[in-house]
Amino acid sequence: MRTKQEYLIRYKDGNLYCELADIWIDPSKPVKKALITHAHFDHFTFGCEEYISTKETAILLKERVGDNIKIKTFEYGEEFKINGINISFHPSGHILGSSQIRFIFAEEKWLISGDFKLQRDQTCKQFEIVKTDYLISECTFGLPIFKWDESNKIANDISKWITNSPEKTSLLFCYSLGKAQRLLNELSQTNFKGNIYSHGSIHKMNNRYRELGIDIKDTIKIENKKKIDELKGSLILLPPSLSKGSYLKNFKNIQTAFASGWMSIRALRKRSGYDKGFAISDHADWDGILEVVKKSEAKNVFFHHGDSEALSKYLVEKESINVLLFGK
Amino acid sequence: MSLKKFSELFGDLDSINSTNNKIEVLKNYFLSNDPIDNSWAIYLLTGKSNKRFISGRYLKNLFSQIYEYPQWLIDTCYLKVGDSAEVITLLLKNKTNLRKKKLSNISLNELLSETIPALSKLNEYEKNLEIKNLWEKLPEDNHLIFNKILTGTFRVGVSIGLITKSISKLTNIEEEIISHRLMGDFKPSIDSYQILINKNINLQELNSKPFPFLLANTIEDKIFKNSINDFQFEWKYDGIRMQLIKRSGNVSLWTRGQELVNQSFPELVEKMSHIKDDFVLDGELLVWNFKEQIAFDFSLLQKRINRKSPTRSIQIKYPIIFIAYDLLEINGRDIREIKLENRRIELEKFFSKWQIKTENNISDIFKICDLIFPKDWPDALTYKEKSRENNTEGLIIKKKTSIYSSGRKKGIWWKYKVDPMQLDAVLIYAKGGSGRRAGLYTDYSFALWKDKELIKFASAYSGLTNIEIKELDKWIRKNTIEKFGPVRSLKPEMVFEISFEKIQISKRHKSGIAVRFPRITKWRKDKKINDADSLDNAYELMKKIL
């Protein structure tokens, strides 16, 4: 086994870095060359000299940081070379454009899972099993208490939640990129026939999704001066950042909910301050992570994002998989 | 009707914040279910009994055994979830082999009166097998309720008042009657539900039950505008509030938490049974210093509360007294509608009669409360300030013309506490101490209620004894919800009395208030988190000082 210093990919200043190619993966500070797994704010930063991503991620990225960035795009599965290393993007099923990134160097394979899920999501490409020697996986929900319900069941619950309170305006908080569009897609397959409004930050992402050919329900951009009566019985999608503070005063007679994997735990649900929680996530649950670890056939696994202590111990004890730690 | 319905009700009540909606949901539930299931629902929702069939630990061990899950993994999950019943419910979701024939139509009654009680007749092996069997047969949505009932941890944010309101709405019977019918040991049965909703009101039926307690409000400024002569003044004792009832010759002793505690205080029950009249008395139970004629500290009373059938030596070591301050019923006649000043006359009249006419001496265990007669409000204040000297908490001020209604009605009784800078708060965070206290969780944060939410209002680290610190540290480790570095967020369960010197408005704190020199003055093990104070109480305190 190689030592830490010799790993093809390692942690440097809290980010994943490949020294041989002098390339960073989802860096949190400006660098020369950055591979971007997907366009969530915690996976890229402004000011890198060059970005490399999938085509869809590039479009979403530009929506967020503007057109003035240098960005090179590749198709899923398309291999490109940097300093003799073969690199390719593969669908990770997290949001539109999201990818796993594979590195092959001297017949040794490395796979960075990026954020991923296995569950159904018709707004992005299904997760692809990629075989590897070394796997660097996320583990946001790395405990067996996390087991997601089918997304159409959650969508039906949301639909029922709205229609059971026709006198109220239903505010559903969710991440503006990915989660919102997935919910809109799922809701179009339920009985819910009311109006759906979305906040500007969500609305612009909806438009990008539609332009990229994703089927999501029609939404109306929420205007501040909407008459309160018009909103009765409708659904309004808002980013979580608006849940605290004065924004909610724009509405009367509301019920609130949060769509997030964390809502599967009652104590977190109660503490969140929302009336209701819908446990739907764009990350893999415990079984999902285990499945990917096993099917990737990786002999060595690293975890980042989340508390991996329990998952690591479990893999070592129960599955005899070698779990390694990065020196951060 | 099925357990499924009850699970849905639980889910609804858990996610609805509006009181009116909760009442509506409850009313609809009662409308669409059998009397027997309704009576069980009321029994569970009002927390009449939280009998524990198996412990949380047992449940976790059992799951670990059956599904070959490492115990440490379940424990790690528990840290995140903070409730054994819920951890196992969530872990059961991960068992895809739960595909047996479903017990989808089991009723709440069947589960509670047959299935679960039957478990206690089995030996351990059979019991484990049966629980596994039930897990596999019950539909997934019912697992949480089932596990919570098994472990005696069923709780939901519904007060007895809400149940009362919803039944009252359903039946058009006054809340007072429903509330009285719900007092005491409500046993789930078709009959008990029928009696609850019966439109014919028969006083006999309420024979064994205490009346709904009248509760005091925190003092308000406007009271000082009234004539002092409009009020009756009593010391505020720091004991256990109780109704002492003798009806048809039988004595029963009910706490405000509606527990029958005859067994804990047999000497009182025995003595009172010698009185010839029937009565209902409202008063306070205390451990009494007969030499100085003042109450002992509450901590001595705690030594008696949880002890059933105390030995003679315990009875002598911790001598109790019942101090009556109101007479609610005499020889079958309900006198709650009579003015307080006249009830007092009756109370005094009967007390002196009982002292003379009862064969056994009752004065060593029973007396009526002394009244105080301040000549004006400043004088009342002086009395209040002196109350520490006789081990009372301040004054209780009662409107002489008031009737005895139920609950925390405004404008009837007030409490005027000696140290107004005191609030009962819920422990929500703990942080590891340093130096001498290293390795122990000794820095605590406390919260007050705001609607249904607990808002942090003060941090304190002094006031507990070393023994208490150790005990609390142990509890903290077992009841952590989440760790943020050195800080743990805790299951809201423990209530403490926090004292402080100054209270003022602060924009820097989420609570909107800042307190000076907060310290813990009492670990209120006798209080549930719902008994803790609210931010509104804190604002009231502030107003009073300004």
Description:
By secondary structure, chain A is of the alpha/beta class. In chain A, 23% of the residues lie in helices and 24% in strands. Chain A has a 7-stranded mixed beta sheet with strand order 7-8-9-10-11-18-19, with helices on one face. A 6-stranded mixed beta sheet of chain A has the order 1-2-3-4-5-6. Chain A has a 6-stranded parallel beta sheet with strand order 14-13-15-12-16-17, sandwiched between helices. The longest helix of chain A has 13 residues, at 151-163. Chain A is globular, with a radius of gyration of 21 Å. The mean pLDDT of chain A is 91. Chain B is of the alpha+beta class and 546 residues long. Helices cover 37% and strands 22% of the residues of chain B. Chain B is globular, with a radius of gyration of 25 Å. The termini of chain B are far apart. The mean pLDDT of chain B is 87. Chains A and B meet through helix 6 and helix 8 of A and helix 5 and helix 6 of B.
**Sequence of secondary-structure elements of chain A:** EEEEEHEEEEEEHEHEHEHEEHEHEHE
Shape descriptor of chain B reads globular
Can you count the helices of chain B? Answer: 19
Q: Number of DSSP helices of chain A?
A: 8
Largest interface: A-B, 22 and 23 residues
What is the gyration radius of chain B calculated from CA atoms?
Answer: 25 Å
Question: Would you summarize the structure shown here?
Answer:
By secondary structure, chain A is an alpha/beta fold. Helices cover about 25% and strands about 25% of the residues of chain A.
Q: What's the arrangement of secondary structure elements?
A:
The complex is a heterodimer of chains A (328) and B (546).
Chain A: E1 10-12, E2 15-18, E3 23-25, E4 33-35, E5 50-54, H1 55-65, E6 71-74, E7 80-82, E8 85-91, E9 99-105, E10 108-112, E11 134-138, H2 151-163, E12 169-173, H3 179-187, E13 196-198, H4 200-211, E14 220-221, H5 228-231, E15 235-238, E16 254-259, H6 266-272, E17 276-278, H7 286-295, E18 300-304, H8 309-319, E19 322-324
Parallel strand pairs in A: 3-4, 4-5, 5-6, 10-11, 11-18, 12-15, 12-16, 13-14, 13-15, 16-17, 18-19
Antiparallel strand pairs in A: 1-2, 2-3, 7-8, 8-9, 9-10
Chain B: H1 3-15, H2 19-31, H3 35-45, H4 56-66, H5 71-81, H6 84-92, H7 108-119, H8 124-137, H9 143-150, H10 160-171, H11 175-182, H12 190-197, E1 217-218, E2 231-235, E3 240-247, E4 250-255, H13 266-272, E5 279-289, E6 294-295, H14 298-305, H15 312-317, E7 320-330, E8 333-334, H16 340-357, E9 366-368, E10 371-372, H17 377-386, E11 394-399, E12 413-417, E13 422-432, E14 441-450, E15 453-460, H18 466-478, E16 480-484, E17 487-490, E18 495-499, E19 502-505, E20 513-516, E21 519-523, H19 535-545
Parallel strand pairs in B: 1-12, 7-9
Antiparallel strand pairs in B: 2-10, 2-11, 3-4, 3-5, 5-6, 5-7, 7-8, 11-12, 13-14, 13-17, 13-18, 14-15, 16-17, 18-21, 19-20
